Fold Pyruvate, phosphate dikinase.
Amino acid sequence: MSPPTHGSRAKCLQRLVRLSLPVPRTVALSFDTVHTIAQGQLPDMPALIAAFDPGALLCVRPSSQETDWGGPGAILNIGMNDARLASLAEDIGAEAAAGLYLRFVEAYAVHVARLDPDLFDEIGESGAKGLARALAAYEEEAEEPFPQDPQRQLAEVLRSMARAWEGTTARLLRQARGAPVDAGLGLVVQEMAPGLGRGECGSGVLQLVDSQTGLPQITGRYLSQSQGREALTGGADSLYLERDPRGRSLEEAAPEAFALLKDYAGVMRRRLRAEMQIEFTIQNGTLHILDGVLVPRSTRAALRIAVRLAEDGIITPEEAVMRIEPRAVSELLHRQIAPGAARSVIGRGIAASPGAATGRIVFSAAEALASTARNEPCILVRRETSPEDVRGMHAAVGVLTERGGMTSHAAVIGRGLGLPCVVGAARLRFNLQRKTLTSERGQVFREGDVITIDGTSGDVLEGSPATVEAALDEAFHVLMGWADAARDIAIRANADTPKDAATARNFAAQGIGLCRTEHMFFEADRLTPMREMIFADTPKDRQAALAILLPMQRKDFTELFRIMEGMPVCIRLFDPPLHEFLPTDRHGLRDLAEALDLPVSDVTRRVQSLGEYNPMLGLRGVRLGITVPEIYDMQARAIFEATLDASREGAPPVVPEIMLPLVSAKREVELLRGRIEAVATAVRTERGRDFTFRLGVMAETPRACLRAAEIAPFAHFLSFGTNDLTQMTYGLSRDDAGRFMSDYVSQGVFNEDPFHVLDTDGVGELLAIGAERSRAANPGITLSICGEHGGNPDSIAFCRDVGMDYVSCSSFRVPVARLAAAQLALRAKGVKLPPKL
Amino acid sequence: MSPPTHGSRAKCLQRLVRLSLPVPRTVALSFDTVHTIAQGQLPDMPALIAAFDPGALLCVRPSSQETDWGGPGAILNIGMNDARLASLAEDIGAEAAAGLYLRFVEAYAVHVARLDPDLFDEIGESGAKGLARALAAYEEEAEEPFPQDPQRQLAEVLRSMARAWEGTTARLLRQARGAPVDAGLGLVVQEMAPGLGRGECGSGVLQLVDSQTGLPQITGRYLSQSQGREALTGGADSLYLERDPRGRSLEEAAPEAFALLKDYAGVMRRRLRAEMQIEFTIQNGTLHILDGVLVPRSTRAALRIAVRLAEDGIITPEEAVMRIEPRAVSELLHRQIAPGAARSVIGRGIAASPGAATGRIVFSAAEALASTARNEPCILVRRETSPEDVRGMHAAVGVLTERGGMTSHAAVIGRGLGLPCVVGAARLRFNLQRKTLTSERGQVFREGDVITIDGTSGDVLEGSPATVEAALDEAFHVLMGWADAARDIAIRANADTPKDAATARNFAAQGIGLCRTEHMFFEADRLTPMREMIFADTPKDRQAALAILLPMQRKDFTELFRIMEGMPVCIRLFDPPLHEFLPTDRHGLRDLAEALDLPVSDVTRRVQSLGEYNPMLGLRGVRLGITVPEIYDMQARAIFEATLDASREGAPPVVPEIMLPLVSAKREVELLRGRIEAVATAVRTERGRDFTFRLGVMAETPRACLRAAEIAPFAHFLSFGTNDLTQMTYGLSRDDAGRFMSDYVSQGVFNEDPFHVLDTDGVGELLAIGAERSRAANPGITLSICGEHGGNPDSIAFCRDVGMDYVSCSSFRVPVARLAAAQLALRAKGVKLPPKL
């Protein structure tokens, strides 16, 4: 029995045998053997049978490489036949023996002979009568009597289980769970300790921890005169294991066996280095260990289990770190719908920002603010969100949109705020005028109705199902500490506001990798000077409008720098097209005309003339910086003044990082560097104090990557903006891709949504080119990514491989990224993934 | 005197001397010498003076490497002083001698001593009195007497000319004409044959061809007792050269000198291998040749001159091909504003499609059709054009738009149709509601007013200035024939309609490289089924709508195939987003609701739901092909049925090329290839006839280039769509770039508009990667480009270098491309550019 060729169950049993636990005689068939069986060639059956006691009943269980790849169900009691019935009746009574035979006939008929299961449902009787009817039914349907030869029975069972594994449905199912195309199946043939008979006989399941909480707690049931896992469904007849006020226990019924079982469980935990769920049988008072699998566990439980194993010295802290799936960690950061809660699903969308939120429906940002003022939690429902909705999003407990994908505005902001968010729920009918939301089945929800969104699954639910709170407990912090010790790539957070920055610090981000400044201009007191600036006819008028914004921006940055206490803060200068700040509806245009004291027709014309066909590819980023240089001048000044204001005696000095967006040519960087340095000199002179800053480039056009060798000498850092870079490499707008992305992924045109998982082939080649060329031209340059991909474990692996210094992601993805990065470093050091049991 | 170091004038004079023509004694100063002079260090002046007859007057002329890089004006009569005045008065009379001295004093004062020119304008007298006043004025202003030492005079002249060349203005001017930063200036010092004096004395200019037409015709003037080029401005006193009914001629006045001059001109044409303009002097009956420069010439004249030189055996046909600037050829294909015509410019835009057009202003496509129906040529004036305007564009003689750049819809269609077009004329105020166009100076033009647009310069002019017709004459065809013989890369045309295809053939395109099919769906009888198709809820309804379009598409393709007579026709399947076919205004929505028999609210909702943030990056191209496969099915069927319908006995079979747009992943190609092959099989079966076709990919996303090795095995050809590729590589929408592109180019952020000249650094690297990887994976693959860059000579050079098989461009750019490609091949063969004289 050699593990990688026989599967995890075989491997576990082998180890139990080596630990001298009382495991019934077992033979494991390798993947190759089982594959050969599926092809029609059986192993040496007489030799196989001869490995067991003559007359023993056998069971066959699947043993694939990973337990959760599935496999055919176990078949018990192989070897039962008319002759054995008679002899067994003497041991355990006629009815029990008949029951046992009947169960075998049923299992064999359905899973091996592939007869219609309804056949046996109709029998309606147990015991000897039921058995007789079942045997007759079998004979009629199969057109032969039930096979009596144990060797033939076993052969047929093996053949049917081998073939089931190779069927199309089973293959697709396990591939969906990550199995390779050629994943093999091993089979374990084991002599049965039937759990039926004279003396104390029965079977049960035990584990030492609670599956939901992960806390130490002997958990499981035992049922006399039962087999397999029947104890778990045995109701009131099943015993508790430990002494328990709720009812009888195995500890009382069979204290010695129980003590032994507890000892064995402890041995298994220590020696298999994992919390195991143990299947056991007591046969006439004697304990047998039949099987062990990893305890099923919630993410929270997995984390506590791993930490406790490490604290108990059973595994190393590094191994504990390897045992937690990074993606699962994000569950812990958010409230979730309780595992067993009833879910009345009224619609589905893209799970854009994890967590569950329950609230009253509101259809506008203003209503969201009003609802929150009334202390009524609300879900903001919009066709899509825009920057004007951000304050409403802050007020709401969750966001639901009709349009958009993983990187739509709602999704990005939602993840940044840790706000549960379901987007692209196109099959719900949104009527924003009538303020209704209609499910596919015609159920109408109105403003004020309570719904729940599950941003982890993408479901939209009626009412308020039970939820469980976020779980940032001691074990979480211990594990993340171990992860940080192992990590060799830094993790920063994308954070735009003081609140974001506080979250980032809370999740131990090592700085801010992307602070978008444009959101700062949507607040009510800023929008008017912003619009005046846009409408200004001369640089002087523009400067006048910007002078009003300067102290506000300075305050923004001062706060951020203070919260981050000397950690790096990378500020992206103004990026979006100016028309995003202008109204388009009649009402908004009239308001604006009033505010600017201009005729509506003038305002309308100006607004229209600023419109763009493809705003993503228009006058934004450094293009604005060069054509309307006053904006960047103001921002640079605000940053530098804030740098001085936030620097405190004795504390590490603030060294702001200024990032230029949408660069496509080195001259853009050269020109703006000159201008920003001039502002720095002016501020130094005015304040009579010195400071330093770092200037860098957001590499988000393919051309910036290709020309990195030219650009790098002008930059202290290069941060790859993988959202835009993906858009441009594919020629695919993230906001518009939602309409066909699911078709594309389901047809296999794209393996994954490239806005979700970094396209290492195409976008990745550009990243690698950009990293290599910029490093060669400027060896001291700092490299990073700051797109949505920054929080994705596969993408972090890629970034680490191409030699980036850090990745930056939404604050709420920081723990995921820390853990994923730690695992990459540990894997590189040779620390293995946990053995799959 | 060695040419590349002394400039073209020096070189020409050297050759005239070697041909034993009577050139006065000449000394040439090299670029280095002149540069040293500018630094303040004069050459050995006594030695220089000693090279000439003692007491001779001298002139100094500039000699830069290319004549049109400019340079300081010539200065004549150096050496004149009070003493020389007296002796010269004996030879040529006191007044003439004084006049000569006066001219030198003036020239010296203004250009060498840099005195105020007004000083001499006020003198108002000529002859001895004028001279006396001028000398006095000089002395007062310069605070020293007029220098009398000829050596000092010459030294000052040399110094001032050398310094003038190195001034900032002169440098910027010549750089704008293509001179390198370090372009040098040579100076030619020549003994004067003054053209004044006893016997027949005078000067003149002669050339053997007409500068405008290029036809043989002795052209020029001669003026007795004159210097330099005074004969050309001498009015009625100047003689014709050849006997002429309009007046007296040199032939009559000095038959021997004229005969000799004609002989010398013939020698110069044959031996300098070019049509020269000759400056000559007759000094007491003796002919002197002072200078020769290339005859100034229109493009049409240049072409005729080159062809005639080759036909006369003076140069080779290959050299003739090298002598024509490809870009200039496009002038010949269009009517132009006459060179001398008065231009009342009312606005300026981007010169998007060359040629001049005069017509009445109309503000809508419908008005354009009506105007043309009344036989009144019209200029279509729009804010921007969209596919719905195409029929109006066909009707108009020119298009003027407020928005857009070189690759906006109006520009692309305009160039395709050979329709003069000025776009992005943002400083004209367009009021489409009031139907007025207002110039910056406030002049208002209304519907029906006549304007002229100059698509060659970008000017918009009032009224109807004189124009000259297109010049596709015999010489043009002869030269293009020679070019085609030399060329080693094929040239195809982008052509969407039978009219385009006919133009393409007229310009000898070797097939159609890009036939866009979407324009076909905008015609009135097609738009309704198209919209029904878009609104269809099931594949079956879609097919029903498409079934109406099938015979129309089949007819489109049949016509194209027939016109192209077996030449390749590359058809790009449907590309634009579907919402382009839907109305957005209230009126259009109501019409559509009526046509589809649906409530307006439904129609509006559907139209809105199809809207996109960035249509360029949305659901279009193969993405539509995969998600709404019925469209491509219909188009493939139409193409295949047309293939059979257009194939004739005995003629080469039609082999259509089908191109998939906007590919970004190989699986897109794989899936659609399967579908299209299935359609081909079905058509073959139904018709009982066989045909072949080629399937290829439009590589227009960065990812398609990067992943070319994967894609190429599924494609017969790969055509790089450089418009979209440029947009995505820069992250820059061509439709939105107009707002800042001119700022960007003028600030040197981009060297050139990348939509105009291929960005070989960035976009070019992707092309090179795509070409190399696809060739490696599929050596037989055909490679080409089919963007707007196809007609640009630099871009063609790049395509040839990376091994493309053909370039495809607008029909009206085909001759430019043929000539440019020929020159590249000839240059590679070692045929040199013509010597610059």
The domain at 3-191 of chain A is CATH 3.30.1490.20 (Dna Ligase; domain 1).
